[in-house]
Amino acid sequence: MLIRLADLMPLIWILTLILALAAVGYFAGKARALASSGGKIRDLHSLPSYYGTNVALSSLVPSLAVLAVWVLVQPILLESQVVKLIPDSAIAEGSTRDLVMSDVRRVADGLDMAVSNSLLSLEESEEMRAESTDVRKQLGDLGVALGAKVSPEVLAAAQEYRIMRKTGSLWMMMIVLALALVGAFYSYSRTHKDFRARNVVERVILALLIGAASIAILTTLGIVFSMLFETRNFFSQFPAADFFFGTVWSPDFRGDSELGLLPLLWGTLFISMVALLVAVPIGLFAAIYLSEYAGPKMRAVAKPMIEILAGIPTIVYGLFALITVGPMLRDHFAQPLGLGESGSSVMTAGLVMGVMLIPFVSSLSDDIINAVPQAMRDGSLGLGATHSETIRQVVVPAALPGIVGAILLAASRAIGETMIVVLGAGAAAAQMHSGLGALVNPFEAMTTITVKIVSQLTGDTDFAAPETLVAFALGLTLFCITLGLNIIALVIVRKYREQYE
Asked: 202-205: long-range contacts at Cβ-Cβ below 8 A with a sequence spacing of 24 or more?
């Protein structure tokens, strides 16, 4: 019966109950504070809303914190326990324990669905309630049917996994709701007119703000460590020198793989460079025009129209590159000049990606240029400089740190783009041995690191094989590249800030 109660108490209902308790605590705390002062607000240390907020926070914060930790930790602990129940004999040749564990989760989910459907059918009529024995028999037949599709060991592990998951969910529900009740009652019992509710509430809110600010840092650390662990596993199976200095990318899950980074790195940098050569001049000049020359009416129309480009899905850009830009460049430039025969090329992906990046550069640069103090413009004009000279010699240098930040943001966006590259530049890695002319030919088909990360993790892959683990090494390489760009940006920003502060 308790397990069934856990089935009927999904996470959304637990959250609803916690919020309801907090709302009741808020009004009860206000009422108790006013009652302790005889209805005189002046006799209270804090405003009545602070007393109510204190009770609500005492109910919300501990319960939600435990709920969040429980939801994150429970699957990890359960899988670590269930995976021990899988004998080595249940792992087929060519498979891994992780793949078998995915089958266990699938079977457990199937059992949950079957139980839920049967329970719903059981509740539909009094007649079927009387036939609960037949329903249990049907569930047993379902287990036999599942056992025909999977090994008995997997079925037994799935049943144990399901029981442990439901038991953990039940304990989570009881502990979280108990914490909400205890927190609300404790805070309510402390509420009186001399209680410093405002001080307590402000300290709690300050702690919440600090915690929110720490989420980004902790998330970054989690991403880095997860990639580091898998990258370490990769380098334990594949030589690091062959990865960083290899000039051939040819993964083969049969064991004869060449996983050189240089072809992918060159394709990434080449396509990103073409995209920035398109986006930076156009975006920067558009920002200068909008901020320094355009009137209010023109700015009100032009700026939103430019920013519409940022809202177009990348798959649409990719289709535009595949259907329109690629054939046009092939027919009018590549073939007449003898530079290529394919519509998929670096130039195709770079041009379309550059168009996509224009609003990233223009919008941010426009905001930065508008933030330059008007006094600097007036001083330059007062000394006899023309409008264009003021922009070139005063406004742009003063806004340069922000403009550099906008360009680096666009560069990071270009480095991480996948869909446009797949449809516009193809999926073939650069041929490092084909000569310098082919490497710098913008009409050659190349691919990027992000595309290969997706391709290596797509399909029925073995996460213990170096051909799959290489995706994490590629991801860590991209992280280091963007980190280097940020460091360069900080150096430039500090240098120019010293001149204008």
From this structure: 204/54, 204/57, 204/61
- What fold, for 257-500? MetI-like fold (1.10.3720)
| CA gap 26, 358 in Å, rounded | 49
Q: Residue 425 is encoded by which pair of tokens?
A: 């530049």
| Closest by Cα among 388, 433, 415, 402 to 477 | 415
SS3 87: coil
Closest residue by Cα to residue 485 from 378, 406, 369 = 406
Closest CA to 282 of 217, 161, 366: 366
Closest CA to 283 of 462, 407, 199, 467: 407
Which two tokens mark 53? 């907020």
Rounded Cα gap, residues 381 and 104, in angstroms: 74
DSSP state of 429: P
Q: Cβ(346)–Cβ(270) under 8 Å?
A: yes
What tokens does 143 get? 């287990």
Q: Domain boundaries in the chain?
A: 2-195, 257-500
pLDDT of 8 strictly over 50: no
What is the rounded end-to-end Cα distance, in angstroms, of the chain? 70
Percentage of residues in the chain having pLDDT higher than 70:
84
- Sequential DSSP letters for 362-427: HHHHHHHHHTS-HHHHHHHHHTT--HHHHIIIIIHHHHHHHHHHHHHHHHHHHHT--HHHHHHT-S
Q: What is the pLDDT of residues 9-34, one digit of tens each?
A: 567 888 889 999 999 999 999 999 99
- Is residue 467 within 8 A of residue 257, CB to CB? The reply is yes
The helix (run of H) or strand (run of E) holding residue 259 is: strand 258-259
77-89 pLDDT, tens digit per residue, is 888 887 777 776 6
Q: Are 436 and 333 in contact (CB under 8 A)?
A: no
- CB atoms < 10 A from the CB of 389, how many? 13
Task: Tokens for 191, please give them.
Answer: 């509420």
Query: What are the tens digits of pLDDT across the range 180-204?
Result: 999 999 999 989 888 999 999 999 9
